[in-house]
Please model this.
Amino acid sequence: MGFILISLIILIGITSYFLGNLRAKNLRTSNQKNLKSLSHYYGYYVALWAVVPALLILLMITSFKSFFIEQYVLSDFIALGSYTETELSLLFTQIENTAMGIKLFDENTILIDGAVNKLNYINKTSENLTYVTVLGLSGLLVLYSLFNINNKLNSRKIVEKFLLVLYFTCSLVAIMTTVGIIFSLLYETLRFFSQVPITDFLFGLNWSPQRVFVREAGDLDTRDLANAFGAVPLFAGTFLIALIAMCVSVPVGLLTAIYMSEYASPKVRDWAKPIIEILAGIPTVVYGFFAALTVAPLVRDIGQGAGLTVSSESALAAGFVMGIMIIPFISSLSDDVIKSVPQSLREGSYAMGATKRETIVKVLLPAALPGIVGSFLLAVSRAIGETMIVVMAAGLNAKLTANPLDAATTITTQIVVILIGDQEFDSPKTQSAFALGLTLFVVTLALNFIALQVVKKYTERYD
Amino acid sequence: MKSIKIKADNLNVYYGEKQALFDVSMYMEEKQVTALIGPSGCGKSTFIRCLNRMNDVIDICKVQGKIEIDGNDIYAPDMQVEQLRERVGMVFQKPNPFPKSIFENVAYGPRIHGIAEHKSDLEEIVVTSLKKAALFDEVKDRLYDAGTGLSGGQQQRLCIARAISVNPDIILMDEPCSALDPIATARIEELMGDLKTEYTIIIVTHSMQQAARVSSRTGFFHLGKLVEVDKTETIFSNPSDQRTQDYITGRFG
Model:
């Protein structure tokens, strides 16, 4: 139903554009009226009246319809007063299925039969009613706006104003989404912290949420809770793996960027740059099995050859592969910022008798520093948020260690572990995922903030 | 007759397929200002950029012919470009101070060439260079502020200070005043008068008045050829070539 109705509205919109345009032209020629805007703006004006209110009404009808239908269909059951809200909504689903011909009830009571009939009736009626309301409104407004066209009406201004509202609404969507996500994170996190003290979460050294899960929710021991949700091993693991990743990607990425921007001939650049950027396009799960099947055994074999004990899943393997994954973030962005340093600065340095290396180290890199720092921080956020590689190559064991050859786990990995499978949403175990998510969010936000400050301070000084 | 500092012999320059300079031969006298004038795209900037081999930076640029400074061929295979550029400084059309402090801008050259042994030597070089560039009094209280924060004219004088910090023999100026207002231009011209007692100066300029004011010899370039080079008074009062006559009287260019 929705598709046909929306198509009809759009059709009316297109037609009314031409009507508005035509009417404006006629007015101009026949009455010598001095219209304030060009004819096609009157077309847009009429079309907006035809489409926008109709769509808004349709949106309202569809969002409230189901509630009223449910109320109407279940009115007999509600009148009985012996059903809880959950039972009612379950009942409604059953009735809906019965109406579609699926046999769910052992025997259809009069009440159920009545409800099914009501449902069929109301569905049909509401559909017709929607068509009439929406199309009628659209048509009326087209007529209204067509007759509204006169020399006092400045349709161009109205169209511009409408676009302004549209732009604003679009940007509001992104903002509201962010706010919504933060609030849902905050809400669940607060519920979690009402059961587990925040200090235990932030400073506890033991992470084993499974222990809580095996018990009945009723007899949770607070002492048990305190020991199960210490997130420090996760923070440490995240930090360790991100650090290893940065140790790989920063030097390789930066030197690649310098080579690409200053040394490579255009020919080499043309084929090498896309290949490097492909690295960023490889799905992380592919990196994951590269890490788990190739790098981790390699690290283990080399380590054992050197007489070290290496677990088969190591932070080093995961960090190394993650480092490779984020090389393009650093190399590509830094390459762009180094390239965008004005040629006049290069010439100025060469003219002083500086060599290429001196020019790069003493002039280009300092000038490009804000962008380079930005690329590092972007890469760090990427490394901290990365999940798949760690799940596959670094293990799930939350162990507090600084040894890169040991298994480690990260915040994101634990969120995955916690939320896989069926979960009760009111157990502290599930809620701990939200607390971890919020922590991750705060850390990333702080990183971005620091990055902005660094960039700002530097640019204020030198630009 | 002054002694000859720079001598160019049958210089031909190509950008890829396109020839930018045709058989240019001229000399420049020591501790004098030589001006190069001519309409846009006539090759005067290309010529000046050959004198410190700045054209090396451009891949497709090819230079044929000979340029001698103090009798040494600067395109000889054993010539170190970095040392050549230490002796031949350059000031560009648009002021291009590095995004560093005023002090660091001037200290850049002495640092990379290892001229100053101690920090005090470096400070002395910076102060003297800024004084020679007539900038010191304006910036002495803010030597550690950003060089890019100065006004256009000050930035250009900072670039001159940077160029003379390594004590070159020659300073090339590629339209140094074209991005500046008349007052800043007057200051730079005045400065050139002071500097020529120590340095050989080659200036490319669009302004014929400027060439007349600052230079002792002037060369006129047109379509990649050196049409005429002579004493500045002669060029502006009694040129021997019709094209020069047309250009200086404003018939084209």
In short: Chain A has a mean pLDDT of 85. Residues 203 and 232 of chain A are 6 Å apart (CA to CA). Chain A touches chain B through 22 residues (CB under 8 Å).
